[in-house]
UniProtKB/TrEMBL annotation:
Organism: Acetoanaerobium pronyense
Identification of the protein by name: Na+-transporting NADH:ubiquinone oxidoreductase subunit B
Keyword Translocase: yes
Lineage of the species this protein comes from: Bacteria, Bacillati, Bacillota, Clostridia, Peptostreptococcales
Chain ranges passing through the membrane: 65-95, 107-129, 141-161, 173-198, 205-227, 233-251, 287-305
GO molecular function, one term: oxidoreductase activity
Amino acid sequence: MPPKKFFMKQIMMRRVIYSLLPIILASVYFFGFKALTLQIVVLGFAILTEYMFEKRLNKPVSEAVIVTSILYTLTLPVATPYWVAVLGIIFGVVFGKEVFGGFGKNVFNPALVGRAFVYISFPIPLTAMWNEVSTSFPGGFARYMTPVIDTVSMATPMTIYRTTGELASINDLLFGAVSGSLGETSKILIILAGAYLIYTKTASWQIMVSVVLGFLVSSYAMIAFGFTQVLNPIYGMLSGGFLFATVFMATDPISSASTKEGKWIYGALIGFVSVVIRSFALFAGGVMFAILIVNTFTPLIDELVKMHKKRLKEKEAA
């Protein structure tokens, strides 16, 4: 007998979708209509993949898979081939969610699992195929896809810095006049989305603040110790997908810490690991892998916090 409803009603997930709509529209303006068609194709396969698993248990598809699909697609460059994007979302839904038992049981953020899979498996389209950014009306609304960049001097801010040591202007980083993945360009829209999610109590402000503080403190500390490869903290925070991941990925209620103190520890660790990966590893980014790494320790963090609280109560009662 089929489930009465195809989708599981999830108000919090709908709020996340609302916060992402301006960013989706901005991605079309910056890079062309392929940004939208990529979203549609990936969304279709995400829903189909989850449906194939849930129909056996007579359960509806979660609206969370829509959020997973949107977030995953926004981490991709617009030139990503459709088949690569589809493989990534299928992998993310299956191995980042369904193998753990479905919605609410996953250890890792499914969108990041899919992104990490295609990043490692298909490095050329994910790290070397970037497109110009439209900066005047009607922008990408008048074309399928903006021209491909064929020189490093016009690549993403993180790539440019690693190659030449040059920094993009703060204004360009804030308003999106730089190349990059679909969702990471306009930091203003990301910040506004974060404010909306905090105001509606949809996402944890403690996690957002602790990730930023962990990133800034770690960056300044490493610079003070003489590590010249560490990017200026303010530029680092506004470059790449750091803010996008902080607002939408780190705050995933399933794979993030649940205790109040644990959220601060969890966020600070993400900020610290992001700086370490960016500065000393081969990857220009880092926050994606930082979140997945810290996701591994999230249950332990919460358990240690609970044990500490229990010991304090026992001491007070003694």
